[in-house]
Specification:
By secondary structure, the chain is an alpha+beta fold. Helix content is 16%, strand content 31%.
């Protein structure tokens, strides 16, 4: 099983809440007065640390407190925390941690920010993703064509992907994200294009075999090796493709990389 770097997997998990609210109800503004902007709660995707059990929140007004509820895949409440912030200025990073009741995988975190005037607003993040173990497809040199002997590997992967997605379907809209990688043989530009073509080829194969999930793909070339090597080194472990089921797009390295839909 090959994994994306932790930063790519764990730090890209923000999802809008199914419901948002603000309370108590505000009185109607006086005639001619401008309506008060709604209280907003925002979360930086890169500051969601599931492993470290920590989240960073910002409010658009002075903050009284932040409440969070952490739920597992079974729907069980793993933790509920409330932290006061004593009127911290709007935009101040507000860090909240939690101690879970079990090691169950976190499926949803509800976040409620309260301002100093008694108003609140809430959002939820859905930090669910699964890296699918699989046997790597072997391509011929400089090729993105899937050869007949490699098809059983993809068939086995498709079965696993479908089973995992079916078990988690109630969590939200799940997408399959496919990321291609290469070793350092050849130029960086060539390897980037090759990894992208191979990721797309696998994505198209899955869709062509009836996968109902949305599929997105991207190639990172030689930029994210599992084994660091010098240039022009033939390292089979770096020639790989990652399959990730996730509700939110995993974060890609800055630059020109971006998810592409099939």
């Amino acid at each position: 099983m090959r994994h994306l770097p932790a930063l790519l997997l764990a730090a890209s998990l923000l999802s809008p809440a199914a419901a948002r609210g603000e309370g108590p109800a505000a009185p109607a503004p006086a005639q001619g007065a401008q309506a008060r902007p709604a209280l907003e709660v925002t979360i930086d995707r890169s500051k969601v640390d599931i492993k470290g059990r920590q989240i960073e929140v910002k409010l658009s007004r002075a903050a009284s407190k932040v409440r969070i509820k952490v739920l597992g895949q079974s729907g069980a409440v793993l933790a509920e925390e409330e932290k006061p912030f004593g009127g911290a200025a709007a935009g101040t990073p507000l860090v909240v941690t939690w101690s879970p009741a079990s090691d169950e995988t976190v499926a949803r975190i509800e976040v409620y920010g309260h301002d100093t005037e008694g108003y609140w607003a809430g959002i939820a993040i859905l930090p669910w993703n699964v890296s699918i173990p699989h046997e790597e497809v072997q391509f011929e040199t400089n090729s993105d064509v899937i050869r007949a002997p490699e098809v059983p590997k993809l068939e086995a992967s498709l079965k696993r992907i479908s089973e995992v997605a079916e078990r988690a379907r109630e969590l939200g809209k799940i997408t399959l994200f496919i990321v291609g990688h290469t070793d350092t043989v050849g130029s960086a530009e060539h390897n980037l294009a090759l990894s992208r073509r191979r990721a797309r080829s696998i994505a198209a194969w899955f869709k062509g075999r009836g996968l109902k999930l949305p599929v997105a793909y991207e190639g990172l070339g030689e930029s994210s090796p599992i084994v660091k090597t010098a240039d022009q080194v033939d390292e089979p472990r770096n020639r790989r493709v990652d399959y990730i089921l996730s509700i939110e797009p995993p974060k890609l390295p800055s630059g020109e990389a971006s998810w592409k839909s099939l």
